[in-house]
Amino acid sequence: MQCSTLGIGLAGVGTVGSGVILALRRNGELIRDRTGGTVEMTVTKALVRDPAKPRAVSLPDETLTTDWHELVEDPAVDIVVELIGGTTDAFDIVAAALRAKKPVVTGNKALLAERGIELFALSREFDTPVHFEAAVAGGIPIIKTVQESFIGNRIHSMSGIINGTSNYILERMTTAGLDFETALAEAQQLGYAEADPALDVNGWDAAHKAILLATLAYGFPIDPEKVHVAGIECVRPIDIDFAKRLGYVVKLLAVVREHPDGSVELRVQPSFIAKSHILASVNGVFNAVAVHGDAAGESLFYGRGAGQDPTASSVVADLVEAARSLRQATGHRGFLPYREGGRLMPIEETETAYYVRFDVTDRPGVIAEIAAALAGAGIGISGTHSPVNPETPDAEFVDMVFLLHTCSFGRLQQTLSEIEQLDCVNSTPVVFRIEKL
Amino acid sequence: MQCSTLGIGLAGVGTVGSGVILALRRNGELIRDRTGGTVEMTVTKALVRDPAKPRAVSLPDETLTTDWHELVEDPAVDIVVELIGGTTDAFDIVAAALRAKKPVVTGNKALLAERGIELFALSREFDTPVHFEAAVAGGIPIIKTVQESFIGNRIHSMSGIINGTSNYILERMTTAGLDFETALAEAQQLGYAEADPALDVNGWDAAHKAILLATLAYGFPIDPEKVHVAGIECVRPIDIDFAKRLGYVVKLLAVVREHPDGSVELRVQPSFIAKSHILASVNGVFNAVAVHGDAAGESLFYGRGAGQDPTASSVVADLVEAARSLRQATGHRGFLPYREGGRLMPIEETETAYYVRFDVTDRPGVIAEIAAALAGAGIGISGTHSPVNPETPDAEFVDMVFLLHTCSFGRLQQTLSEIEQLDCVNSTPVVFRIEKL
């Protein structure tokens, strides 16, 4: 199937917007292939504040506009991507796009948490979708999970670390003993915190995301003004130390939970969580959401919660969804072969380090013989050990394990088959991989 | 929007099939609400071996059949769910359903890994979808993630613990020092392993799943006969011990990785992985897949990899997808309000334990005064501490922290506002939650 290219109107060419352009350039062909040729997309219009400003990702001059009406109304724009942030112009852009029956992709959690009800009503009225995977937890597909994968689940609870900036600051306070101000300054220097970090550190960025998740899971609008939010500005080294001593770590946690009476608890605040819980290991700018559904049980979704490429990953996935709905190409979702001559690597070529256990007859020279065979094949040994059973210290048949440096599996197999011929080796050696993950 | 109910033909009413019936009964109304009334489903035909056999989940007699043709051809069947397993009858059922243009939902990884190419070709030919989220990692939406959420990503690698039986056995060998045979027998007793556990412990169940993931990620069919698979039958306590001593754990790992030359590595084998890696903490019957995409970066998806309810969760999600495509109801995917009078719990009613830090003027009686106020409100104290700064041991203003037992936030706030009035308390106390996750 061949189709004409869909035009994207990109409102906002900042960090994420540039990431979207780059991702489409890098992987546009792959997307076309994976969708059986139904989805090709290109940025046909881009809303910027200053067209003259030099930018990392170049776009043709005629693509740029400073007037959002021009972007939404352009007949060459089929899908509108809103990445300008804020809740005023962004609202007008999304609303106008929906009225024009142009699907919208947005990463604007504040807009949806504050004014989503109005926009989703427009979406229904004009039967035009609003996609917003990028609004919560960057590259983690948590919106799709709650909306689609867990649609048959009553959601008991969702607990998440969903603000990377706060999480980075708390981790630095924990591991480097920094105070809040120093850790924040460091995060800003590294580009993990905005020049105005207020929404990140005061908890509201996480709260907007939690509100979105809760509305999807529980089906009623939640007024942000009624949500209790506390940020991490009040966290001090003494709190971190005290938590540590008790076996906790301090995290900015968003908690959403349905109670037996049907009421929904939603709160964001610094929290002590047990060091042994999997959420406690979510460090740096990573995000994670633990979801407990009545059928799926406990699940956890972990990944990069912000940044150019991860957020662009979610925007692009939404763009493909939007494109598919425009193309009515929603039927076949099975495996679609798109790569001719794809090559499965023969197992002999794969390379890792190895653990090998030999069953040997214990006599002087055994290690030397095996080691010599490995050396002859150029396979390095990082360790060897023959555990002595205290009950049978003079056993004739013993296990002998070798840790081997990285080499091809083919070379290993070849060498092991030679070693297997040695008198002292009684059976086929057992091989495990040592994985670098 | 109101629609007639869609009929499901359920081939196989075993563990998962019963789970699907139960999930639809339990949450059918929720699904209808969440889809704006577009999706109502009921089982109209069920394929069983012996209609007379008593079963946990009752179905009307006229619904039961022993002839799959009857199920597929029944005009009251709109969607066919294949859960009988195997690659012969299951193939015929899926193929016949597709030819009849009835969407298929299956959890049969062996069928798709062995004969998926034929079935997906039929799916394209008859423009009818095959959904198979339940085929890989039970309740974890990894198929949707790879196919949809990461569609704009080049997938660098996928590493997974995707056979719960093996993982349970390895964990028991690790934590309880059992040998393989004993741990397997235990898993069978608990229902975690089939009477014939061959496919689980020999690695092929995991391999089938890895093959499915790899074909989706890389776009070419992979011949199972060319895949190198080793199971956990060869793992012995000595290997587990040795791994432990070196800071590793032994896991049955499926590794899929694309190399710079485009060739794809795919293997399943017992592996040493570093104890500190997040996959090392995946225990029991849980599954996890770490996915590395070029845009999304490192991600991890964790959850229940098997069992009645988690697998049914994925089948039901696929059923909703299939139903939506039949209903052409793919437009609006934003938030849909479906619960009138939903109630956000006032923050005062929420309950946790707390950490509270007071800024106090250090004089005799401070702890007593604060403790008395807490006691008066019936709030229990589990600990208190006032860290002394060695440089200023006689400081006038000090921090004093209290750990408090679970109580409502309203009661805490009320009590803290009283405490704030005490002469010795210099500012508003700082409160963190202590979360039970």
Automatic annotation (TrEMBL), chains A, B:
Transmembrane segments: 6-24
Record InterPro entries: ACT-like_dom_sf, ACT_dom, Asp/hSer_DH_NAD-bd, HDH, HDH_cat, HDH_CS, NAD(P)-bd_dom_sf
Protein name, UniProt field: Homoserine dehydrogenase
SUPFAM superfamilies: ACT-like, Glyceraldehyde-3-phosphate dehydrogenase-like, C-terminal domain, NAD(P)-binding Rossmann-fold domains
Family: Belongs to the homoserine dehydrogenase family.
Keyword Lyase assigned: no
Domain ACT: 355-433
Pathway given in the UniProt record: Amino-acid biosynthesis; L-threonine biosynthesis; L-threonine from L-aspartate: step 3/5; Amino-acid biosynthesis; L-methionine biosynthesis via de novo pathway; L-homoserine from L-aspartate: step 3/3
Catalytic activity: L-homoserine + NADP(+) = L-aspartate 4-semialdehyde + NADPH + H(+)
Gene3D superfamilies: 3.30.70.260, Dihydrodipicolinate Reductase, domain 2 (3.30.360.10), NAD(P)-binding Rossmann-like Domain (3.40.50.720)
Key words of the record: Amino-acid biosynthesis, Membrane, Methionine biosynthesis, NADP, Oxidoreductase, Threonine biosynthesis, Transmembrane, Transmembrane helix
